[in-house]
Write a structure and sequence with these properties.
Number of strands of chain B: 26
Structural class of chain A: alpha+beta
Strand content of chain A: 35-45%
Largest interface: A-B, 79 and 82 residues
Helix content of chain B: 10-25%
Number of domains of chain B: 2
Low-confidence stretches of chain B: 1-5
Mean pLDDT of chain A: 95
Number of strands of chain A: 20
Oligomer: heterodimer
Largest sheet of chain B: 7 strands, mixed
Distance between the termini of chain A: 58 Å
Radius of gyration of chain A: 24 Å
Strand content of chain B: 35-45%
Number of helices of chain B: 10
Structural class of chain B: alpha+beta
Amino acid sequence: MSAEPLELAHRAVALATGAGAKEAEATLIVSDTFSAEARGEQITKLQQSVGRSLTLRAFVDGRKATLATTDLSPEGTAALVERCVEAARSVERDPLGGLPEPEPVAAADLHIFEPDVRARSEDEKLADALAMEREMRAYDARIDNSNGSRVADAVTSVALVNSLGFEGSYTCSSVSLSASPVARDGAEKRTAHYGASRRGYGAMPAASEIARIAARRAVEMCGARKPRTAILPVIFERDVAAVLLGDLFAACSGANVAIENSFLAGRVGERIGSGLVTIVDDGLLPAGMGSSPFDAEGVPTRKTVVFERGVLRSFLFDSYHARKLGAKSTGNASGGTVGPNNFYLQPGSGSLEDLIARTPRGILVYDIIGFATEHVTGTWSRGASGFMVEDGRIVYPVDGFTIAGNLRDMLATLDDVAGDIVYESPIVSPSFRVAEMTVSGT
Amino acid sequence: MSDTQPETLPRSLIEHLLAVALERGGEHAELFFEQRLSHALRLQEGRIHEAGVSVTRGVGIRVRVGDQQGYGYSDDLSQGSLERAARVAGKIARGGHILHAVSVNERPVENMYIEGEWSDRVAMGRRVDLLLRADAAARRSDARVRAVNGNLADEVQDVLIANSDGLLVRDRRPLVALSVQVVAERNGERTQGYFGDGGRRGFEFYDRVTPEWIAGEAARIAVVNLEAVEAPAGELPVVVGPGGGGVLLHEAVGHGLESDFNRQGVSLYSGRIGERVASELVTIYDDGNLPGERGSIAVDDEGTPGQHKILVEHGMLRGYMQDNINAELMHTHSTGSGRRQSFRYLPQPRMTNTYMPAGDLQPDEVIKRVKRGFYAKSFSGGQVEISKGDFVFMVGEGYLIEDGRLTAPVKGATLIGNGPEIMTRVSAVGSDMKLANGSYTCGKGGQLVPVGVGLPTLLISSMTVGGSRVG
């Protein structure tokens, strides 16, 4: 990475301390992004840009203000830094406010940058997008339309400097391919969406494979009906399971725990989940989509055990919320609060099909919509679609129902876990089963 | 940069960039310049916890060829960097080297925003005062209030839009929002309440809609929820309350009437203009021209004036919400619905303020029609799948209806339904149409835009309530 981003970050820190900040931290992010969308036989969208942004945190006697700007002109930055430091004076003094003491960052290669993202030609990327469109339509005659197939990649450089002497930078890359078929189901339309993300093109599944999985998911839902209201075991397919884990992450975030906006507040050391619930956050997972050498405030990332065989062991922290709760930062600072690195449920064994085979009766959830989670109480419900399972086999597709429960009960009754985890986002999960939830249909 | 005047691009540079964008044979080029100054202040644990300042400034350039779009943006306003963005956008056209002369002329925009105490002229102390007033009011309202968190956000966004048809317009858009979350506690059990309000206004908004009232509503909901019973599970008649209940229209019908989905034939409403799609009691408007409302825009992000649009009239589908590209491909006109999150995004057809006009029943007459059912006073959010029309709503405040009266409050309910099905089941409409208090933000294709909703009290004869209590 060129010296320029580090230099810009140094300059912003100097401007802030010059304007009266006692401590300051600047992050310069430069992101070179590409995305293309195909529909039918045509490329419908082609976008490519380099975006730059500066984020500054300034502390004036424990009073914190942040600045985020895409205006990096010298005059613009100077005026904004001043405005930011001025804004800090309106904040109440917080004795816990301030930067973390710099710690050395290990030099291990995390494999988060793959040169093939830059090397692959635009024509090859466009060919992938078009191939997915063709492959979906070839899979089944009922697929005669789509919401598009997408190829997107980015190379992102991060430079972080603070007034306590921290200086660090790294470059990472990402690639994602996704396909969204629309299938004709009598007079109705069925949609699906499936995609994959990796650090480079080399590790990506083939475009044709992604398209076939997306197509199969759309076609399989044809003829779905509303199930009867009942209490049933629920299997969460891995992408849906990851959404649930996202809600659990929020409950484990020191930022929520500190304001008691979490049903887990005050419960470290208690048994919450079943023996299958081992959940970790690992910032050093090789090639992980959430891996980085240091977090958003320069604290080295690490591996933290959050749940160990059902027992809540630790929350996740940035330096401020760690100080507040008498803990140490776990290297989870992100965007001014606490964020996941690679947060996942420890996989069990077998495929999703094996997990279905181990389920005498239940409902397999393949897709959910909505976002009703009350973190204070753990109350959780979503709209859902998927399949009825009887005698270890899928019997028919179902949709138009909700599943509801409480995160605490769901963790306590999580009774089977598959081994099908794929580390393609900062929060991932293998498929798992919860012993009973309310399925609300007709 | 100065506090109140945006930087701007010289007209000659704008014309040059549009010509560069069309060099490879594009049919249509557009430039979007944005400069947005936002402030945010957060209240936590009874004190001002954090202040934020943010600037979004840059230029996005788009080239269209048929239904193909190329896009490039730059936050660096140097000529070289802007030319690169224009060339990247132009790559979607694969023709040879063509020289176009482009000339643009500024067109006045009818100002629809209310002059007042706009965000860029407000001192931080004014913001601090509003949040501390909210905190005090929530704590004063009930001894069971345990925690109060608040967010005050405000901005002024300056945009300049020019295109190869010769258009050049500017718009200056204010926005304020205050939201409060209250946690109440009784015997170790905690519940929360959330309420917010705002609009395309300055800070004079808070003289009318006070922070005390907003915080009081959040506290009231949190305390009501202490008494709440588990939500029932199964199919029930549902009465949707006025104002915030309008999220129902936004999800159940609105998204399905955005023109991109209809041109591409992926919406269940594709090709159905003139057909019956709802009960004859249902009329739905989308209106970008309501002064001061959160979803309003003098011009959209393609420079077309905001409009009042009839989407559904007495149950008949009348029209879609159009942006430029979809309108052109469907041989019609833009309805001023082209919106984008920022200069980093292509515009999409989007809603502005979506609402249903009043019916003729007293609201309590509507509730009296239900023997056993569910009353959704407000929603905390919703989501829809536009091809089949299945949607969900998360209920913010809800009650059981027993023998035509509201009884116990209900917690944790999600409603699920199918848009076209639910719209045929609208069986009574109240006379109490109200635009929602709220600070609703709509997400589509990864882009967020502020929107408004409105609704009179509405009876839906049957809908699935997704609670956890069976029987």
